[in-house]
Amino acid sequence: MRSLKKNFSRGIVRANPIFILLLGLCPALAVSTSLDNAVGMTGAFTFVLLAANIIVSLLREQIPDRVRIPVFIVIIATLVTIVDLMLQGFVPVLSESLGMFIPLIVVNCIILARAEAFASKNGMIDSIADAVGIGVGFGLAMLSISLVRQLFGTGSLDLFGRHLFTIPPLADNPVVFFLLPMGAFFVVGILLALFRWMGVSRSE
């Protein structure tokens, strides 16, 4: 039980993929302009990571070492294709908003790294705990970045068509800078600095 708790909690703070490991920054910078995108990307990412970890952990003794990386990529690519088609079929607006960053999950170094470094060496239960922890950490990072960018960039917060609240001064004079690529780098930099200031460091 202690190992499961450790495997789960590690990915949230001390091995947070974005703020500590600095992995997966491409979607964090590109699609974090709204909470909708953050939730959609987190769901797609977590599904692929969890399913990949389960499959790799179950097949780890049957996969020859010399071809393990190509096999991992084929597994991840298959899962990403499933997610991409499901988004296109059931939530086309979100699929269009996330664009090419859904197919790019195939080459997301977080997922391949967890398959190689963890799932291929551990059992299914531990691999599930690891994937869920990393997914939660990724989601919290995406939501934090999107919250700041959407709030300051538009002056209001909306989630899947539901209006949450508005800040009148910002709604009248939004800081559009936060919705631009430069704003993404600025917000991520501030949050990275905050993590360092809090004394959070990398932990394996």
* Percent of residues in β-strands: under 5%
Secondary-structure content class: mainly alpha
Give the overall shape.
globular
- Please tell me the total number of domains: 1
**Biggest β-sheet: strands ordered side by side in the sheet:** 1-2
**Strands, count:** 2
Termini separation comes to 18 Å
- How is the main sheet built? 2 strands, antiparallel
The number of distinct helices, counting runs of at least 4 residues, comes to: 9
Q: Which runs of at least 5 residues are low in confidence (pLDDT < 50)?
A: none
Your description of this structure?
The protein is built from nine helices and two strands. It has 204 residues and is mostly helical. The mean pLDDT is 89. It has one domain (2-197). The two termini are 18 Å apart. 65% of the residues lie in helices and 4% in strands. It has a two-stranded antiparallel sheet.
Summary tags:
single chain; 2 strands; two-stranded antiparallel ribbon; 204 residues
Nutshell version of this structure?
The chain is 65% helix and 4% strand.
Helix-strand blueprint:
Blueprint: H1 2-10, H2 25-30, H3 35-59, H4 68-90, H5 92-98, H6 109-117, H7 124-154, E1 156-159, E2 162-166, H8 168-172, H9 181-197
Antiparallel strand pairs: 1-2
Helix pairs in contact: 1-7, 3-4, 3-5, 3-6, 3-7, 4-5, 4-6
